[in-house]
Design goal:
Largest sheet: 2 strands, parallel
Number of helices: 12
Strand content: under 5%
Helix content: 55-70%
Number of strands: 2
Structural class: mainly alpha
Strand order of the largest sheet: 1-2
Shape: globular
Distance between the termini: 32 Å
Order of helices and strands: HHHHHHHEHHHEHH
Number of domains: 2
Radius of gyration: 19 Å
């Protein structure tokens, strides 16, 4: 069970914590409480950042282990994780600059009250995305994808169904809810990280978050501009890439020190959507200092 990179133990740790929380709530009645449920939902979201990462860079040297890990991740989020390849790697990473629409574009959400955009974003782009994936998968020559996706679906839904048959109400609340929570917030990230950004810009197309805790648990998913610009970079290299290649050229408002503060300010304490940030409004020195200060110790 050899990892390609030793640092990827962190991704295995995140998945292990999530599955341990689910198992504890199913098997130990004392653990069936709000605290454990909140923790499981939180780690369900972080597992989705692992799901995203392994579609860019598999964890193991063994192809069989990578395949098995995708089955596990499919159960974690209750969807076939192979679907991330067409929806994210092949479509979202191009935005619409290849002439094809981004299935997860923030423009699909059009409520005037911005909180509704956040709440309903999965309901809006979920059907669009999966319909488009099915069209993509139907093209001749993609039988391997269809087979793999079907196997992941059978495993994820089959195992969840067996658990529901064994203890319906416990699994409904303490397994199914975390599964759906993480998967739906995985879709909302597209809105959070790109709404109000200029997808035609080389450096202002994504919103970033520099909090140390959020980046530790999400394996540096906060450095989203660097990831979009260089998707082949391993997650351990994103912070350095951001500091050197992105921060000096990016609008300073697109580096936020705290995800939770940003969510509250953007979706709870205001009605309108964030303004478009399409040009650099501060000198290079000021932007560099801003990044340095934010990365030095703000929380998640």
């Amino acid at each position: 069970m050899r990892l390609k990179r030793a640092s990827d133990w962190r991704q295995l740790f995140i998945v292990a914590v999530y599955l341990t929380l689910l198992a504890a709530m199913v098997l130990v009645p004392w653990c069936r409480n709000v605290g454990f449920l909140v923790a499981a939902c939180t780690f369900s979201f972080y597992v989705q950042t692992v799901t995203h990462n392994v579609q860019h860079a598999p964890l193991f040297e063994s192809k069989a282990l990578n395949r098995g890990f995708r089955f596990v991740l499919s159960f974690c989020g209750l969807f076939p994780v192979s679907s991330v390849v067409p929806s994210h790697n092949l479509v979202h990473h191009h935005f619409d600059d290849d002439g094809q629409p981004d299935w997860a574009s923030p423009t699909h959400a059009r409520f005037s009250w911005n909180l509704l955009n956040l709440l309903h974003f999965p309901n809006i782009i979920g059907p669009i995305t999966f319909a488009a994936i099915n069209r993509w998968a139907s093209v001749k020559g993609r039988a391997d994808y269809r087979r793999g996706s079907a196997q992941e679906s059978v495993f994820a839904f089959g195992l969840t169904g067996l658990l529901l048959a064994w203890d319906f109400w416990t699994v409904l609340f303490f397994v199914l809810v975390p599964q759906l929570w993480g998967a739906r917030w995985f879709l909302r990230v597209n809105l959070i990280q790109h709404d109000g950004c200029d997808v035609s810009s080389e450096f202002n197309h994504s919103r970033n978050f520099s909090g140390r805790l959020i980046n530790w648990l999400s394996v540096n998913a906060g450095y989203h501009t660097a990831h979009h610009n260089r998707p082949g970079l391993h997650w351990t290299e994103l912070a350095a890439s951001h500091a050197v290649e992105v921060a000096p050229k990016m609008h300073p408002e697109l580096m936020q020190p705290s995800l939770l503060v940003y969510l509250a300010r953007t979706y709870l304490f205001r009605v309108a959507r964030p303004a478009m940030y399409s040009s650099a409004a501060a000198p290079v020195e000021a932007r560099s200092e801003l990044f340095d200060g934010q990365a030095a110790g703000e929380g998640s």
